[in-house]
Amino acid sequence: MASFTKKVLGLAGVASVFAGMAFGAIVPAVCVAPTIPAPIIIRAEGTAEQLPSFTFTCTAPTTDRTAAGTASLQLFLSLPVTSRVTTAPATEARLVMSGTVPAIAQTISGTVSGSTVTFSGITLPASTADAQTIIFTVDSIRVNATSLVVGAGVPPSVTITPYITGTATSVPTAAFGAMSAAFGQNGLSAMAIYPTFNTYLSGHAPAGTLTANNFPTGTSTGTANTANSFVICNAVKPSAGTLVAGASTAIGKAAGLAFVAKIGENFTSAFKTAGLESSPSVTALVNGTRLSLNFTNVPAGVTLYVPNAAIQSTTSNTSTIQLAPWANGTAPTTPTGGVTSGSALIAGGAPIAFDNSLVAVTLTAGSGSVIFEAITADQNTLDSFNVPVYAVTTANVPSASTTGIGVSVNFAPVGVTTVPNFIVAANSNTVTGTTFSTCTTSLLFPFVTNQSGFDTGIAISNTSTDPFGTKGATAQAGTCSLSFYGSGAPTPASVTTANVATGTVITQILSGVAAGFQGYMVAQCNFQYAHGFAFLTNAAASNNAVAQGYLAGVIPDTNQANRAASPLSAAAAGTGESLGN
User: Fold this and answer.
1) What's the pTM?
2) DSSP symbols for 452-512
3) Where are the domains of the chain?
4) Which top CATH class is 28-185?
């Protein structure tokens, strides 16, 4: 009997062994360390930079199964995590699970604490066959990259260290090594300005060239990063008749171009469309990359305008930027004379008309910004955009400026919770744009005296009102500064007259402004078309009165050309003195 029992038990043991071989033991899955085969470059100015997704796999051995269980995944990053909160405390960061036998389809939102993302509540079903495979995919993780120190050499790395825990029979605890997910670089290249229109390209060909006739009177040109100097003698405004029709074409040449601002990216994926800025789990309220063009030191009386048309990259046929819907707080409108040619929809905003018109920059105390957004983006080319900036003035209204308009660019927006979001980084350089000078007329009175019983009467006429209609002068007004050189010059040696209205004459007796003086005098009037007359007399003497008059000489406007002593017949146009006229 005992022998029979032993035999039965022995057969049972053998059956048990065969059963284990046929159906497999219950063992935890083995997880393979994740890797990111191609780390990306993120913008060091960004506070919500999206990292690449990554996948890792946990698999039971071929002859084994896994039991039902739970697990959690933690990711430790080298930067603060800024993935957007969707339904608190859940964020857009997500873990997507897939698997076989049985089929697994589960998505878990991550919670964020500092630089750690946690995916908890992972449910692992028991396998119904051997060799179960579970695939974990992680995406939509954003980081604040602004603490990265970017310099010469290899850019700083952003790392992710995964750590997974599970029940003993499903997925064991496993700590993986840090993996490089991204490298940080500045997204914006150094800004530049150009004073000529040749550099504003459309389709890699000049859209037009400004000649001297298209500039305000006396404007000079130069090379890259050399400021224009506008001498505002007459009203300046862009001419609607010279604008090129069509939303996809560049603005044509127009009077009043102040300068062209060059905005470039520092690596090929720095400028993105709204679709590229979005994450797989969140697409709403995401903008394309925005670029804020900032102006300072704009003189009173000057209005700046920028194009409302799409501006194409000078290096790619597939990249464009355009005014964001609320570049000035409200959607831009089409100025009178603009040619409407279509509309476009910018993510996060309402449809607005985009055409070849110009839009004014809203200025407060000489400062203001406009915001452009990437509408299309070439992720394999370093894009560069030339934005023409036009100045609109009235004659001699702007205050003279020795400091040019300051122009800088930075990513936008700054200091809000939208995606993307940025800071104004130290690499946001400011370049100098246009300076403004008022037109003047300088009059030379070669001899005036208030000595030996003589006095000099001075008359200055403002002849900017004339009978010549549209071909005549532009009416202007201003004061004159009288500077004295010689014996007995007053202190200070210059006197400012009252305002000289257009079409009027002011008179002054030398003894009233420079008693006892004898020498020559220069009158600098801050308007054009000034002419002078001097009258010397000792008429106060009882006998032998003497009187003599002469016309003041006209010195060409030194804001436009240096004073030259050559006579007009030998000097270049506008550089010689016109004495006695």
Assistant:
1) 0.73
2) TT-EEEEEEEE----S-GGGSPPP--B-EEEEEEEET--SSSEEE---B-TT-EEEEEHHH
3) 28-185, 192-438, 441-577
4) mainly beta
